[in-house]
Design brief:
183 residues; alpha+beta; CNF1/YfiH-like putative cysteine hydrolases; six-stranded mixed beta sheet; 13 strands; 21% helix
Length: 183
């Protein structure tokens, strides 16, 4: 999915759940997010009694998936730790001007998450493309929401073919599972 639906999981579920984020306070319940270029985001409170897994694609981030998840969590933001996993890197994630505009309408702080491409195409027209940094977008959102404890694994799924799946690179590909489990 690439939206903003958040579900709470209280027990083991043996079926696919269509959501972009999951939360649990139940012990021994593992939450998994599947990605191939999108950003996996994991949240935990200080004592590990509440956890969340978020699928952070650009659409999900634009639809405030992090904020929607925090709204459904019981823990206060200053008690939360975030981990940002590997995703398509800031040198490979090419997007159109319309994607940048969505974020710029939300907050001017996102300016630093976009770099204009200097590529010209036929007849010297610019391609109006930007490189986007998903991890930086998420970091800005987390900081704006009051989460300052953020760890980041700055690895690029697109560039590291021997290590990660990438939909943008391969078109047809597998997915990585990012899993978090409550204490």
């Amino acid at each position: 999915m690439h939206g903003s639906r958040v579900v709470s999981i209280d027990s083991q579920v043996n079926q696919f759940i269509q959501a972009d984020a999951m939360i649990t306070q139940s012990p021994k319940v593992a939450l998994a997010i599947m990605t191939a270029d999108c950003l996996p985001i994991l949240l935990s409170n200080n004592d590990g009694t509440e956890v969340a897994a978020i699928h952070g694609g650009w659409r999900s981030l634009a639809d405030n998936i992090i904020s929607n998840t925090l709204t459904k969590m019981q823990s206060h933001c200053n008690e939360l730790h975030a981990w940002l996993g590997p995703c398509i890197g800031p040198d490979k994630f090419e997007i159109g001007e319309e994607v940048k505009a969505v974020f710029m309408q939300q907050n001017k702080l996102f300016t630093k998450a976009f770099v204009k491409q200097n590529t010209t195409i036929k007849n010297n027209f610019s391609n109006n493309k930007y490189l986007a940094n998903l991890q930086l977008i998420a970091q800005i959102q987390l900081q704006q929401l009051g989460i300052s404890n953020v760890a980041c694994l700055p690895e690029c799924t697109y560039s590291q073919q021997d290590k990660y799946f990438s939909f943008r690179r391969d078109k047809i590909t597998g997915r990585m599972a990012t899993i978090i489990c409550r204490k």
